[in-house]
Design a protein that fits this description.
The termini are far apart. This protein is α/β, with parallel strands linked by helices. It is globular. The strands form 2 sheets. Strands 8-7-6-3-2-1-10-9 form an 8-stranded parallel sheet. The model has no long low-confidence stretch (mean pLDDT 96).
């Protein structure tokens, strides 16, 4: 195994350390503006830096967080004590990473289906990110469920190809890739529809990864949990979510993949935490199963902070509390923690 692949394998192993998971703090500029707006925070370079500093400097998060995914802007920013964020995170034992895709664009003119752009110049950008301290990357594809016609086979296969190409470029650069094919919760679909589309998506992704020669031991998978649509009637049943999700993964995800780190996908913090815990009640799993949450880890802290320096301490307490709960769920011992 060459040096770059060995680095990817080592990084993947570090990120799936038992009882730990990832903080996804990689919101794009439009996304962070949407998060800030409901609590009255203007989205400026300084408010974004201050918010990420609040999260990263919370004392003790390294007990629960193995890695942080940063937005490109954040990768180049500094703590309030003028230490580069990647260097600060590495110093406290957290692996720095970066979102490298350039966002979603329409798959075809007038289509609601999307593809992710950003492959052009990626190898050169990765070299720069590595110099800044990043040791892993993330790329998101998004697939929408709309009846029997969406997602189309073209959307599934096209996004799978792009994810595999991204992963291959990352491994050649010694940057461990997180592969994120998200089947969106938007809509009123049943859990069975979500399971069908997620399985088809993951089958296409792993077929593309094989064809691209990606080393499975040197990557992580970041999928959605299989739930009903967000506007479907009733609430998700935690046991049904766990059974559907694990059944899909066992059928498709090779044991060579060291870890599955779930996205929260717009679920409430409590629901995402509970669903993760329920998966660990199903016995031994062939991969490490943990989290790579954004809103489910951050939302309570953001609501308390509201951009007010006087609220930093209670916001950090809320963030630490949620981190402790999610880490407990990643070990299947949530009941003993609450």
């Amino acid at each position: 195994m060459d040096q770059n692949l060995a680095a990817c394998v080592a990084t993947a192993a570090a990120l799936v350390a038992p009882g730990k998971g990832l903080l996804a703090a990689d919101e794009s500029l439009p996304s962070i503006e949407k998060r800030f707006a409901p609590v009255g925070i203007p989205s400026t370079e300084e408010t974004r830096r201050t918010y990420r500093d609040l999260l990263f400097s919370t004392g003790g998060i390294q007990r629960f967080i193995s890695g942080v995914i940063m937005f490109e802007e954040t990768l180049g920013q500094h703590t309030s004590r003028d230490e580069a964020f990647p260097a600060f995170l590495a110093r406290i034992g957290i692996v720095p990473g970066v979102k490298v895709d350039r966002g979603l664009i329409p798959l075809r003119p007038g289509s609601r289906e999307t593809m992710t752009e950003g492959l052009d110049g990626l190898a050169k950008r990765l070299a720069g990110y590595r110099e800044q301290g990043a040791r892993f990357a993330k790329w998101r594809a998004a697939l929408r469920i709309e009846g029997d016609r969406v997602p189309t086979r073209y959307a599934i296969d096209g996004n799978a190809f792009i994810l595999a190409r991204y992963a291959s470029i990352c491994q050649q650069a010694g940057i461990m890739p997180i592969v994120e094919p998200e089947v969106l919760r938007d809509g009123g679909h049943a859990i069975g529809e979500s399971a069908e589309v997620t399985r088809a998506t993951l089958e296409a992704v792993f077929d593309a990864l094989y064809q691209a020669g990606v080393c499975l031991e040197g990557m992580l998978l970041k999928p959605n949990m299989i739930t009903q649509g967000a506007s479907a009637p009733g609430a998700d049943d935690a046991r049904a979510v766990a059974v559907a999700t694990l059944d899909c993964l066992r059928r498709v995800v090779p044991p060579a993949v060291p870890g599955v780190v779930f996205l929260s996908g717009g679920q409430t913090p409590d629901a995402a935490t509970r669903h993760l815990d329920e998966m660990h009640q199903s016995g031994t799993l062939p991969w490490s199963v943990s989290f790579s949450f954004a809103r489910a880890l951050q939302q309570e802290a953001l609501t308390i902070w509201r951009g007010d320096a006087a609220n930093v301490a209670p916001a950090q307490e809320a963030f630490l509390r949620r981190g402790r709960l999610v880490a407990a769920a990643a070990r299947g011992v949530l009941a003993a923690t609450t």
